[in-house]
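Raw record, unedited: Alcohol dehydrogenase YqhD (Iron-dependent ADH family)
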Amino acid sequence: MSELSYYYTPTKVVFGKAAEHQVGTELEKLGVKKVLLHYGGNSAKKSGLLDRVKASLSENGIQSVELGGVVPNPRLSLVYEGIELVKKEALDFILAVGGGSVIDSAKAIGYGVANDGDVWELYQSKRRATACLPIGTVLTIAAAGSEMSTGSVITKEEGWEKRAYDDDLGRPAVSFLNPELLKTLPWYQTAAGSADILMHTMERYFNQSTNMALTDGLSETILRTVMEQTMIVKEDPQNYEALAELMWASSISHNGLTGFGTDGGDWATHMLEHELSGIFDVTHGAGLAAIWGSWARYVYQNRLDRFVKFAVNVMGVTPEQTDDQTAIAGIEKMEAYYRSIDMPVSVSEMDVQLTVDQITEMADKCTEAAGGTIGVVKPLGRDDMIEIYQAAR
């Protein structure tokens, strides 16, 4: 176990059927008077979800102002628009109605309202926030875990830079999780969301720590559960119990629990993928699946025992003659699982043909964003990143 660990989860979770009908009641308890309703496209309106949320707010005397238009890999320009709107309307709370992109955008707006200067400087690691306007979420996809996490990722259109900022100040005050809202999702989004949940868990699982058995057990159970329940949803998209498992796994995979007692994990795959989706606008979960196998093969010998444990305990591999063979079998079985849920295991499977110049550009951007190397299983420099991108083509 690492010498010093912190676990902080201030988010209140309202979970179950019709959870969104409790929005007004819970926000009234927080003293909220006027809310920014932040959402993506028209699905929140067409499904009636936005109307249900607005009705719940109105019944509790809470006013609301709307700002839609969030896209996957949320844009900085809309964040700036939201900051100005919140200030103009004197709003005191931001409610994200959507998935990880909407929640990330809401967090960025919250930081921008509560801190002087350009909010992008936070994502450039030039300074830290001192406050954040309170955030709430009505979750519509099991994926990013932003509904309980510190994380937020924003893309700046100029230069197509995708950068993350993590801060406890951005953890939502309350999140409303209704698994029934997942029933209308296209299969690709569900599968990509599951890949995201798996990667949030694996990023922490693969580390250079002396690990805790309990934390390992929680992580391994989450991984097996997500894989099992995703296959159930593939066959039965309306299965409430399976969707509930995925929605809860999304939250606990990324709220800090699965990293407790460790060095925090590797995160190289995430940083490599951020450059990929920043330039090509691919779905985040799919991009992670496309890169992970190439990263794993490149680093596994630096933590061979961990990859063997993953192969046996998570992927059900029977130990082979050597640890190397067992570890590789686990990586191959993970890739086979991604294929079984229609996720890519190479970049070309997302209809992206990487050129040498693009690979160099992504490696340069990733190195700059990290201020040097990435990852802990094997610290990766620019040349290492280039090799992984090339292997993932």
